[in-house]
Structure formats: C-alpha cells, structure tokens
C-alpha cells in the first residue's frame, strides 16, 4: 500500500540533505510518497535545527498543532539537531511524538518508524560508509555530503554536541554519488560539511591521505558537472593551495562563504575561532587579488557575552573593509552544553541595537554594490522558471531575475544586468 510522508525541514543545507536521504530511504524501502497536505499524511517528520533558541521553543507548539490535525493513526517523528540535543525529553514533553531520530542517525530511519517510542540519538554513530538510497529524480542541483560532524570547539555553538565528531566520507563514495547525479542531469554540485575544507582530517576506515583541494580537483573531472560549490569552509583552513585552486579551477563557483562571526580579536579568542581579524583579512585579500569578481558571504554574531562597544566597532570595520556580498547576522543566543552558556548575557536592547546598526551598514554596502553591477555581463545558470520570469545565479553567487520564461532549467546564459530594485538585480540574456 502506498503511504504518505509529510516532511518539514529547518536549518542548514546539512539538514536539507538529511531530509533528502530520509525521503529517498522511505520511498524506496517503505513505499512512501511525499505529500504537502499534512492531513493526509501517514507519517509526519520534523527535521529540526537547534542552532539558535527560538526555533527550538517553536518546536513544541508546532508538534501540538500537527497532533491536533493529523489523520488518526498517523505517526509523528522528530529528527535533526534538536532531536540530538533533547533526546527522550521530547517524548516526555510531547507524548504525541512516536520517535526521535538524532542528526547523524539518519540511516536508522526505516527501522525507527516501526519501533514505538524509539529514541536513537547516538552522538558518534558512524554513517560515513553508509550508502543511502539516492533521489532518482533528475535535479539540476545535487547536494553531496563530504563529512559529518564537527571537531571545532567554538564556544557559542551547539553543533559539535548535536552532530558529534568529524568524520570524512570516503572519496570513492563521494565520486560515485557525484557521477550518478551528473548522469541523472545534475549540472551543479554542492559539497556539504560543517568544515568542508578540513576534508580528509579523519576517516573511520583506512584511506589514502587526501585534502579538500584534491577532492575539488577530482570532482571537477566529472563530465556533466559545470559548477561546483561548497558550504561551509572555515577561514582557518583556507591555505594558499586551496585559495589558488578556488581561483584557477574554472568549474568552481566564484562565491565563497567565509564565516567571520566577529571582527574583534578579543571576541574571536573568546569564541575560540582559532584565527585573528588580520588572518581573515589576509585570506580575503589573497582571494580578491586572484579573483577580482569574487562574491564573499559571511555569518556574524553580535552581542557575544564579552563583546564591548569597541569590539562591535571592530566588527563594523571588518564589514566595511570586506564589503561582504551576503551577510547572515544574528544576536548571540546562549545554548546549553556550550562553553559560553554560563557567561553573563549582554542587555537585549543593546544587542538588538547592534544588530540593527550592522544590518543597516550592510544594506548600504549592498545598494552601492548593486549600482556597480549595471551593464556587467554574468554567466548565469537558470535555477527557477516562474510565471513571468526566470531566476538564476551568476558564477559569483548573485541572484538575477530575467523577464524571459523561454529559457531552459539548468541552462547557462550570458546575462547583462539592466537595473536593480532595492539591491535585487534584473538582467536580460545577451543573444
Ligand atoms: N547564537 C547565535 N548565532 C549562532 N550561530 C551558531 N551558534 C549561534 C548562537 N549560539 C550562527 C553562526 C553560524 C550560523 C550557522 O549560526 O553565525 O555560522
Ligand atoms: Fe541547525 Fe547547525 Fe544542526 Fe544545521 S548543523 S541543522 S544549522 S544546528
């Protein structure tokens, strides 16, 4: 009998990838098909994130509302990072939940759905050699895990606690998956891991010595793959060899995410980030020198407990110097089981003001950058065709809307930027 699965995914690309694995395993081995209508679902899965506090609080009200409308007999499962962090607490607090499956225990999905009230949150479960069922649908973009877990000890971050120690996935499995996805129509590959450029630091079975730069070279040999992206690299591991490969390899998208977190050396030290602002700037300058049109993105946390006003000014100063093309910014949120958890928090009004100042500064930078884009020509891959326009990304990560629906999904076009509206770019195909 055909059963229906409803799945909602929060958080990062790693979680999206885990949801893909869950869907593929359940489709192939348990005969599920996807539904977007929660009322007809036989199985409801929430794949959760716990990186900041709010989504975690929302989880229980969300479970309550699903339990109220679900079909009689339908099961509810909680997966992902909040599942790892809270474990059996979830079933205690929300008895309508049927099972809890932690991040990095995804390969157990087919057995857990048939085990009442099961909780599988083994923090160092090793799935690095497990060959998940693959989405057979052709998709122009393929997300491919290259490592699981994280060995860093950033003092604000829950991830090492929810995703365990770092293990790299063997090269042959990555290449096999990439080749199959390319054969099924993928044009773009996104390599995923908590610290992708630390690839090769540890395997769970004997493996040749290899680093991220070698992996990039191997992936770029695959026919059919035209664009390679990766999230997230760590600034600390951006050595010269990596930066040169990034700049010179034509298949690598010239957009790079460089999570700064803070522009103050004192705060970076308290965050245990392992680099200084000088190191970060040196890496940025090297990348910009080799790749003048590079797009750089970042993550920034304001109001870390030890952040003084002058530290915050250092962050603003770094944002002005780098002129990030994308910036995700957050107010620090204390997370249990992290080393910063017991530090005294900064007043929430001051924190909110700092976030606003930072975001306003970035908005100005984006507006200035968008104006400079007019008349530039970008090679754009079409990612989405809507009713009256198509959307795609340039090689350096800029989202561009083209008022032309006569383009092919996954196709590459030369597009000239014609105008910008509030920082959003519009262009037309150069024929
Ligand atoms: N509080 C606020 N932001 C956080 N992040 C991670 N942990 C926290 C926290 N405790 C942010 C970081 C990270 C992004 C995914 O989320 O900027 O890079
Ligand atoms: Fe959220 Fe981090 Fe887990 Fe991703 S790894 S789902 S961002 S807590």
Structural account:
- The protein is built from 13 helices and 19 strands.
- It is α/β, with parallel strands linked by helices.
- A 6-stranded parallel beta sheet has the order 2-1-3-4-5-6, sandwiched between helices. Strands 15-16-17-19-18 form a 5-stranded mixed barrel.
- Helix 9 (240-248) runs parallel beside helix 11 (277-290) and helix 12 (309-322) packs parallel to helix 13.
- It starts with a strand and ends with a strand.
- It binds 5'-deoxyadenosine and iron/sulfur cluster.
- 5'-deoxyadenosine is lined by residues 51-52, 156-157, 259, 261, 299, 301, 330, 332-333, 335.
- 5'-deoxyadenosine binds next to strand 13.
Give structural attributes.
431 residues, binds 5'-deoxyadenosine, single chain, alpha/beta, 13 helices, five-stranded mixed barrel, 34% helix, Rossmann fold, OB fold (Dihydrolipoamide Acetyltransferase, E2P), 19 strands, six-stranded parallel β-sheet
Put the structure in a nutshell.
With 431 residues, the chain is of the alpha/beta class. The chain contains 13 helices and 19 strands.
Query: What is the architecture of the domain at 126-253 at the second tier of CATH?
Result: 2-Layer Sandwich
Strand-pairing-aware structural class: alpha/beta
| Biggest sheet record | 6 strands, parallel
CATH topology of the domain at 126-253: Transcription Regulator spoIIAA
Shape: globular
Enumerate how many helices there are, as a single number.
13
The portion of residues assigned to helices is: 25-40%
Number of strands: 19
Portion of residues in beta strands equals 15-25%
| CATH class designation of the domain at 126-253 | Alpha Beta
* Euclidean distance between termini CA atoms: 51 Å
Spatial sequence of strands, sheet with the most strands: 2-1-3-4-5-6
What would you report as the Rg, rounded to the nearest angstrom? 22 Å
